[in-house]
Request: fold
Amino acid sequence: MELFDGERALEHVRRQVALGPRPPGSEAAARLRAYIREQLVGWSIVEQAFTPLTPYGPCEMVNLLARWPPGPFPGEGAILLGAHYDTKIFEEFEFVGANDGGSGVACLLELARVLPELRVPVVLAFLDGEEAQVEWGRGDGLYGSRFLAGTWHKQGVLKQIRAVLILDIVGDHELVVTRDLYSTEWLQDLVWTVAREQELEAVFDGPLEHIQDDHLPFLAGEVPSLVLIGFGHDPRGEYFPPYWHTPGDTLDKVAALSLERVGRVVQAALPRLQPRAGA
Reply:
């Protein structure tokens, strides 16, 4: 069986960073969607356009969804793997989001190469508008995941999803994966068990944090959900990684080995995600 390759994933980060900042509605974001589609030959693909009201006014956004095996979305028992592809808007400097945005997308694209062998129904969700346009909170942020979860809820298909795994900020050279206190406990335990089996306890040993990310709208819809993220506070109370939301979030901050570790844990965990009564 083909295994997740960190160097291949790093190349996907490199291609994203070369596009520059990729905020919602930008030409760079459109070019990135075209690149993503090129990597997903044979998958069912739909683009979900929507125009939420942001602090700057209406903003055109697009979620890109891909399904394997090809078929209707989401599909009974499908596992949703998500990552946001937008980068946060900063007027005072260029923000290319190599780790914050780029690493999660890269992992999904490399997983897309190896997942068909697992014979597990999967939806890849490349989500727009995760970043707040101005300031986090009061509805500013998580635009794409809120729209997707809300749309599928209205259509009566949200409960078809077996589980949701969101990947975000997973490429740091000194990656430690946070244990999010919002995430579904049994799903988190399963993934952490796989990490231990791969002797990655030191990587999956981040702090306990309440993480607000794209898993929250799915949790609100009562879908088992987990975020894998290398983000939190250090013992001094400062955010890590230290270059988060700064011009320093560049390609050199992302390690192929970190991407590979997270990707292989996800790859190994997916076949174990069997339906659970009452979960």
User: Anything to note?
Assistant: The first strand starts at residue 44 and ends at 50. The longest helix spans residues 256-269.
